């Protein structure tokens, strides 16, 4: 260790880069809408939590144009909305 100051500066730089990366990743994470009430998980399956902005098109029947006004129904957590 000829230059211990270089080691310390390098270590601090690496820690700062890792911290900034974690903060940036945390800001892009979505908490999701949670589990819908009354939904029972089946054995071997686990629920997937989708954020309110996860859906961008919605057509429940696969026919005709997309229903952009009903996009929120996809991830609202209510199995009764269509």
Report what the structure shows.
This protein has 82 residues and is mainly α. The chain has two domains: 1-30; 31-82, no CATH class. It contains one helix and no strands. The longest helix is centred in the N-terminal third of the chain and has 25 residues, at 4-28. The mean pLDDT is 76.
SSE layout:
Blueprint: H1 4-28
Task: Write a concise keyword list for the protein shown above.
82 residues, 2 domains, 30% helix
Shape: elongated
List the quaternary state of the chains: single chain
Number of domains: 2
Tally the beta strands. Answer: 0
Largest sheet: none
Structural class: mainly alpha
Secondary structure tally, helices: 1
Low-confidence stretches: none
Describe the structure in brief.
The chain is mainly α and 82 residues long. The protein has 1 helix and no strands. It has 2 domains: 1-30; 31-82, no CATH class.
